[in-house]
Amino acid sequence: MSQRLSQLHTGDGLDRWAGFAIVVLGFALCYLITALDTTAMPGRQAYLPAAAAQAASPEYAAKVMTAEQLLKAGNLDKLKPLLDEMVAGYPYQAEPFMLMADYHLRRQEPVAAMHAFRQALDLNMNYLEKKTPLYQGKKIRNTTREAEALINVALAANPGNAQMRKSREELYYMLRKLAGGCGD
């Protein structure tokens, strides 16, 4: 037995370094597990509980319903101030931005509608997933295509138009979003 202990104790240098490395990695793993910071990142993630509370509020639901009714009735003059109020009051909700996009579509402003769709998709990508009841991917894709045509025409006529150059950057962003979406 003493001979066996001496064989275990007298391992070559590689065995000793491997054992040392295993011990160091074990301590490093323990340190990482205990030191992992699980606090919420600042920004939009910190407001998710507040956004959920807003979405559940009867006041918010009433405003969404009123906006939808005004849109269906074609009363765009009353709809715009309500949408502006909703966007300002509920900046972390996607529905006001989707309604704003529908407002711009009714006014035949696809570039402005694309901008509103982008803001809605940044808040909720479910509008591009076919398996959700929120899916509106075809409408968003068609609007983006219309906006692309208008942007290209405007830039061909005036390549220095800063507003259209900015809109083109947003167009590329939307095309990437649409390519990565789960719909269509």
Overall shape: it is elongated
CATH class of the largest domain: Mainly Alpha
Class inferred from helices and paired strands: mainly alpha
Evaluate the radius of gyration.
28 Å
Q: Percent helix among the residues?
A: over 70%
Give the N-terminus to C-terminus distance in angstroms.
Answer: 72 Å
* Quaternary organisation: single chain
Number of helices: 9
- SSE string, helix = H, strand = E? HHHHHHHHH
CATH architecture of the largest domain: Alpha Horseshoe
CATH topology descriptor of the largest domain: Serine Threonine Protein Phosphatase 5, Tetratricopeptide repeat
Mean pLDDT score, rounded? 81
Please report which band the strand proportion falls in: under 5%, 5-15%, 15-25%, 25-35%, 35-45% or over 45%. under 5%
Count of separate structural domains: 2
The total count of strands amounts to: 0
Q: In this structure, how is the largest beta sheet organized?
A: none
Poorly predicted regions:
40-49
